[in-house]
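Let us begin with a simple case.
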Amino acid sequence: MTAKRLAIFSGLLMLPVLYVVFISLHVMTQGDTIERWLPKWDRLLLLVAILGLERLYTYRYAGSQRYVLTRDVISNIVNLYITGAVAAFILLPILSYIPEHYLGRKFFFASPDQLGPFWLQVPFLLVTVSFFRYWMHRWQHSNEFLWSLHSYHHRVTDLRATNAEVSNPIDFAFRNIVVFVALGVIGFNPFAALVAFSITNITAVFSHCGGDVRAGFLNYLFVTPEVHRWHHSAETPAGHKYSCNYGVEFSFWDVIFGTYHLPQKDGESVQPERIGHPGGLADEGNYLKILLEPIGLYRPWAKRGGPQPAE
C-alpha cells in the first residue's frame, strides 16, 4: 500500500476510531470516581489525542500558534470548567419554570422510557443537537451582535486542537451549552445522552485538528479538518455571503442547505490559502479583551489601571 493510500485509509478510520475509543471509555468508567478527581477528563484526553494526530499527520501549511498558547489555555479552562456551570445556573431555573407553569411538565422532566427506546433516542439527540448548532452557528455569522462575540474564534491563523475552545464565553454558551442543558432536563436516557453528546463533542474538537487528515467521502457527512478550514478561510468563498460549512458535527446540514464548500482538484480536496478573520483582523492573544470587549467593558476596565488596548 502506497503512502498516499495509507494516509487516505487512516484518515477514513480516524473519526470512527475516536468514537469507539471514547464511547468505550465512558462505558467502562460509568460509576467510577474518575470524574470526581479529574472533571472533564474525556475532553482533556481527547485534546491530547488530537495533539498527537497533529504531530503524526504534519500539515505542510501549518502556522505556529505558540505565541497565543496562554490565551488558548485560559480559553480552554474557562469554557470547559466555568462557562457551562454558569450557563446551567442561569438556564435551569428558566427551563424549570416554563414547563411547570405553562406546559404542566407534560414534555419536560419525563422518564427515559416515555421518550422511546435507547436506539431511537441516540439518533434523535444527534439530529437535534447538530441541527440547532448548525443554525445557531450560521446566525452567529449573520447577526451583528452575535458576530461581535463569535468573530474572536475566527481570528486564529491556523486550526489547532488548542484553539477549538477559543471563544467569548457568551458565544460559546449559545453554540455549545444551551441546547445540551435544554435536552438534559427533558429526561432522556442518561446513557443515550452520553453516547450522543460524546459523538458531537469528539467531532467538534476533531474539526480543529491541525494535521493533514484526508477523510474522503466522510467529508460529506462529518465536519473534518478539510471541511472546517474553509469555514475559517480568511477569504469568503465565492457564492457564500458570510462564510460556509457552518455545521459543528455533521456537514450534511451544509449539503442540504447549500452552504457546503470543499473544492476538488485532481481528485483531492483543495485547502484555503490563508486562515484568519475575514476582515483581516490579527489574531487576538489578549484573553481579557476577548472576554470584555464585545460587551463594551474592556476600555472602562483598562482606564481603571488594566493593560491599555492596542491601537
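The second case is a distinct protein. As before, the sequence precedes its C-alpha cells.
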Amino acid sequence: MQAILIIVVLAVLAFVAARLLAKRRGFEVRDADGRRLGAPGMNIARIAPIVLAAIIVMVLIPASVRVVPVGHALVIFNTLTKGFRLGHQGITFVPPFVGVTSDYDLRRLEYTMSGVSGEGRKTNIDDSLWSPTREGLQVGIDLTVWYHVDPDHVISIHQKIGPDYEEKIIRPAVRSVIRLVISEYAVMDVYSSRRAQIQNEINQKIKQLVEKDGFVIDELVLRDVRFTPEFAKAIEAKQIAQQGAEQMNYTLEKERKEAERKVIEAQGRANSIEVINRALAQNPNYIKYLYVDKLSDKISVIVSDQNTIMDLKGILGGREH
C-alpha cells in the first residue's frame, strides 16, 4: 500500500513537471473567450505517459531486486499466491508490492549463557544455568553452544517458529537438557574428570531434541562450573584436610621406612655377632686376637695368662727395623 501511494504521488509530480516543461518550450493560443486553441510546443499528452513510465520503472526495480548476503538465505512470501520460495546468496528477484521477505543467517551461530558480566547473549543479568545434582545441591553451569540452521528447513522454520528461534527453541532446549543430565550425576562428578562424559551426554541429547526442527548442533562446551558459596567453602575445607592427610601419610611412610632401616641394621649386627660366636667356638684364641687388634698403640706389654708375656713393643720395633 505504501508503494502504491508513492507511485500515485510521483505520477502527480510527473504530470505537473510535464505541464511546466510544455509551458517553457512553447506558448498557448487562446480565443477571444480565453479558451486554449493549441500549442505549437511539446504536447503534454505525449510526454506525461513517458515520464510516468520512467518513474514507475525506477520504483519497480528497487522494489523487486534484493541482494542476499553471503551465507544467508531470503524467505520470500507471495501475499497473492500465499506461496513461499527461498532466495539464495547474491541477487534475487522479489514480486513487487506483494512479496514479503525475511533474512536468515545460515552460518555457524553461537549462543552463550554465562554469569560473567559482558559475556553471553544476556549481558545485563547472571545467565548461568543453575541446576540441582543427584544430591540436590545446586551447581551453576556456564556454557556455549555452536549451531547452524539447516538450509533445507529454513522455510519450515519461518512458518512454524519464526526468526526469534533462539528464544523459542535453542535456549529452552539447552536449559532443559542441562537440568536433565546434571540431575543424574553427583556434585563431585561435575567437578571431576567425569565432566567430559557429562558434556558428551548433553551434546547427544540436545542434538536429538532440536535437529528435528531444522537446527544442527555443532558443539556444546561447558565453559565453567560454579557452586554456591557454602559448598565452595566445604570443598576448600575438604581440600585442606586432604592435604593434611597426605602430609600425615608422608610422615608415617617416612617413619615406617626408618623403622625398617633400623630392623635391617639390627639384623645385620645380629648376623655379625652370630658369625663371631661361631668363630670363637671353633678357635677360642680368636677373642684374644680381636682384643689385641683393638688396643691402643701406646700399650707395649700384655699378660695373656700366668705363664705368657707378650712384648708388643719389641715385636713392633722389630718390624720397624
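The longest helix spans residues 229-282. The first strand starts at residue 29 and ends at 30.
Keep these points in mind for the review questions at the end of the chapter.
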